[in-house]
Amino acid sequence: MTEPARPAAGDPAVEVRGLRKTYRTTSLRQVVAVDRLDLTVPSGGVHGFLGPNGSGKTTTIRMLLGLVRPDSGSVRLLGARVPDGLPAVVGRVGAVVEGPRFSPDFSGRRNLRLLAAAIDVPGTRVEAALERVGLRERGQDQFRRYSLGMKQRLAIAATLLKDPALLILDEPTNGLDPQGIRDVRATMRALADEGRTVLVSSHLLAEVEHVADTVSVVARGRLVAEGRVGDLLGGDAAQTVRVGVADPVRGAQLLVAHGWSVRDDGAVLLVSGAPGAAAVTEVLARGDVFPHEVGVVRRDLESVFLELTGSGARAGRAPEVAA
Ligand SMILES: Nc1ncnc2c1ncn2[C@@H]1O[C@H](COP(=O)(O)OP(=O)(O)OP(=O)(O)O)[C@@H](O)[C@H]1O
């Protein structure tokens, strides 16, 4: 395969500013699917585009690809403005947005060969693409005999025929079993390690948490957080100290007086904002409260996500406003 084309050094692979899209429902109400969204996907690596169901991810991805026209805002893909500049970069962008459409009775390999011929790329790319997604051994099997995960990986292989610099995958792990999820994750990692940019959307954070280098979190069509996964999880704010004391009321008073927030979950006090367990024990001991249990609960991206998006899928839905 040739070296994947990349945008100029330092340019983001995707840059979205002030993007907005409303839909009109059958009851003539307006749904704000995407609301003044800013999104920056750095060039290279895996970028998780995360948000609960209905938070506007698919609509955004469709706007990135010029499939849906935004009400306002701007989109740049690999430096080119969408939609006007899209023809110049479309050959370097691969996307899996809807369920893959392959002939069920043909083998995976034959499906890819037909596709390669249709888009006028050399058939020799087929083997490399199958290899990249770990399907070379199963390339001769009929598509309909593939597992859901294999079908997804074949869809990714199809995008690789063009040797894209940017891959956009909408919920590629949806409905997959744990092994299927691991396989798709490994494929995304391998593609990013080749210098490509992989933009992957998901409503299930656990599915991308371990593979994404950077993430953007959306809720109700708006960006609520972005950055490196480690930064979102790191820092004092991201850890909670759990401490068990005989007198939780007195313990909580001491800790709150120190400026930390405290929640009594019935069994232990959960302290956030403290620099660590040692600081919490010290403050308590100075007030003659001696913990019988101390621990640190590290937050995972899931809890950060639930906090940011207002806890759960319902909170992420697009608001309806009167037309
Ligand atoms: N064609 C459409 N007509 C009307 N409303 C739409 C249309 N497409 C999407 N919506 C609404 O826009 C909002 C955002 O939907 P979208 O599919 O972009 O979210 P999503 O984050 O991709 O959700 P999911 O993870 O469930 O696919 C939802 O309220 C959805 O019902």
Which helices and strands, and how do they pair?
Layout: E1 14-24, E2 30-41, E3 45-50, H1 57-64, E4 72-77, E5 80-82, H2 86-89, E6 93-96, H3 108-118, H4 125-132, H5 148-160, E7 166-170, H6 178-193, E8 197-202, H7 205-209, E9 214-219, E10 222-228, H8 229-233, E11 239-244, H9 248-257, E12 261-264, E13 269-272, H10 277-286, E14 293-298, H11 301-308, H12 313-316, E15 320-321
Parallel strand pairs: 3-8, 3-9, 6-7, 7-8
Antiparallel strand pairs: 1-2, 1-4, 2-15, 4-5, 9-10, 11-13, 11-14, 12-13
Helix pairs in contact: 3-4, 4-5, 5-6
Residues 23, 25, 31, 33, 51, 53-59, 203, 317-318 line the site of adenosine-5'-triphosphate.
Q: How is this structure best described in words?
A:
The structure is a single chain. With 323 residues, this protein is of the alpha/beta class. It has 2 domains: 14-233, Rossmann fold; 236-299, 2-Layer Sandwich (Alpha-Beta Plaits), CATH 3.30.70. The protein contains 12 helices and 15 strands. The strands form 3 sheets. Strands 6-7-8-3-9-10 form a 6-stranded mixed beta sheet, with helices on both faces. β4 (72-77) and β5 (80-82) form a beta hairpin. It starts with 13 loop residues before the first strand and ends with a strand. The model is unreliable at 1-7 and 311-323 (pLDDT under 50). It binds adenosine-5'-triphosphate. Adenosine-5'-triphosphate (ATP) binds at residues 23, 25, 31, 33, 51, 53-59, 203, 317-318.
